[in-house]
Design brief:
By secondary structure, this protein is of the alpha+beta class. Helix content is 34%, strand content 22%.
Length: 290
């Protein structure tokens, strides 16, 4: 990537796509014919497709030399781009489709820019139904904006505070993660959240750690990785403890979003599997692809 792409240009695209999906939601909720089952058994709506068409068109105009990988794009096209050893845009034009189609508000528009080395360099997570956005700034920092309020600078909880007081763990069902206490040796506090907003709580400093089992796709998590890095933390592959990359395949291994690399390491999570059962969100994602 020869020059930095202004984040405001991408935010404008994301917000216009958000307006589109919000306008379509009531019609899709009322009319099941607007919801389709893809060949692989996953769900898609007219809003997913129209949002992707809009975002892709705008990104191609802005950066004609950068290809696009997207959830609603043919798998063979996506894999060819991943194998091309090049930078690419990564898009989920409507993440958490099942919630959207049922009239919920916990869906998002995900846009990230992946370097040829596979690292997420820029990220936006926009939750239109919640009027909430997380993003990386041109200054290399991370921000959260609620509505039209002034964006708030994000910073992870200091490592020393996280380990000396109480490591906080985001989980959908705390009882399923009780095994983590064995590795940590102290009490855990659990905060219930859903989807990628779990990991965003690490970036805001509200929690120190969020662990996810395998099952997410690259377009789900890449924006979080960029945002968390800009906030001073990171997203780590639990297989080897390295920073998570997004160019080796469409599915992701188990990972930890953490305020510091030392936190999951101290908890003994690197190299361990089955410490947590996947949340209902992940199980739904595996069965439906949404």
């Amino acid at each position: 990537m020869k020059e930095q792409i202004p984040i405001e240009s991408i935010i404008v695209i994301a917000r216009e796509a958000a307006t589109l999906v919000m306008r379509l939601q009531d019609e899709i909720v009322r009319n099941p014919k607007k919801r389709h089952v893809k060949q692989d058994g996953s769900f898609v709506t007219d809003a997913d497709i129209r949002s992707l068409e809009f975002i892709a068109k705008k990104l191609r105009q802005l950066t004609p030399g950068i290809p696009i990988v997207a959830e609603e794009q043919p798998t063979d096209v996506n894999k060819t781009i991943l194998e091309g050893n090049q930078a690419f845009w990564l898009i989920d034009s409507l993440d958490n489709t099942s919630d959207y189609a049922l009239g919920g508000n916990n869906f998002s528009i995900n846009i990230s820019l992946i370097s040829k080395e596979g690292f997420s360099k820029l990220g936006i997570l926009l939750f239109p139904g919640l009027n909430e956005m997380y993003y990386t700034g041109d200054d290399g920092r991370a921000y959260k904006q609620e509505g039209k309020n002034v964006p708030q600078l994000l910073r992870v909880i200091p490592f020393n505070a996280a380990v000396s007081e109480e490591i906080m763990k985001v989980a959908h069902h705390p009882q399923r993660a009780s095994g983590l206490s064995f590795f940590l040796g102290q009490k855990l506090r659990f905060i219930t959240s859903r989807g990628q907003r779990r990991a965003c709580l690490v970036a805001t400093g509200e929690v120190a750690l969020c662990v996810e089992n395998e099952g997410f796709y690259i377009w789900d998590t890449a924006p979080v990785a960029a945002i968390l890095k800009a906030a001073g933390g990171g997203v780590y592959n639990l297989e080897d403890g390295e920073i998570l990359t997004f160019h080796k395949g469409l599915r992701l291994p188990a990972y930890a979003a953490a305020a510091a690399r030392e936190i999951p390491h101290k908890m003994g999570l690197f190299g361990l599997h089955g410490v947590m059962s996947p949340s209902p969100d992940i199980q739904l994602r595996k069965s439906s692809g949404t």
